[in-house]
Amino acid sequence: MSKLSSDHPTTGTSPVTQTQEAAAHDIPSGDSLLQRGGGRLIFSAPSGSGKSTIVQWLMREHPELRLAFSISCTTRAPRGTEQNGVEYIFLSPEAFKKKIKNGEFLEYEEVYENRFYGTLKSQVESQTAAGQNVVFDVDVKGGCNIKKFYGDRALSIFIQPPSIEELRRRLVGRQTDSAEAIENRLAKASYELTFADKFDRIIVNDNLEKAEQEAYEIVKEFIER
């Protein structure tokens, strides 16, 4: 936390000046504002737009932002060294469905029969109470639903590719998908792009370093408000 200092002696300082100086000491510095945490940041984008790269850069290069992914629930079994409450909160399908019935989820999805993923409202509140600025890395529908729930308490950011053709080039360059899978991703991306204007901010990722810096400035401004 930064501290204010003065080269002038206090002897003979007027009461008004002393009051002003005392008040100045009560003004939170930028660092202390960042340390408060409690923000909610939604990132959505079509596959291949660079969203995950940008979010990971923010977390790695700017720890002062106190960013942390929301810890989701899932009904799948833990893998490897995964721990309950760390990577995921692991629930049985029955327990997950009960929480759905009770309205405990911000958003959830059944990816196939009895394989659920979702975000608990209580988990987000627990993380924000601990001083974290919680990051939601979700699809566009999930992002819109979370934003609708939190309103001005959340900032929604859409990472947009410069064009569908550039997105095609990136997906082909990954060399991880078949031609058919790429066409399916592009069709989905075209649909997802129609949601862009529902987000608070849009970052066009035509230059990664520029997009990363823009994301940093947007997130920092929101956290410090």
UniProtKB/TrEMBL annotation:
HAMAP family: Guanylate_kinase. Belongs to the guanylate kinase family. GO terms for molecular function: ATP binding; GMP kinase activity. Residues 1-30 are annotated as: Disordered. InterPro entries: GK/Ca_channel_bsu (IPR008145), Guanylate_kin-like_dom (IPR008144), Guanylate_kinase (IPR017665), Guanylate_kinase_CS (IPR020590), P-loop_NTPase (IPR027417). It is an enzyme of class 2 (transferase). The keyword Ligase does not apply. Its main location: cytoplasm. This is Guanylate kinase. Pfam families: Guanylate_kin. Residues 7-21 have a biased composition (Polar residues). Residues 38-220 form the Guanylate kinase-like domain. It comes from Prevotella denticola. GO terms for cellular component: cytosol. It is found in: Cytoplasm. Its EC number is 2.7.4.8.
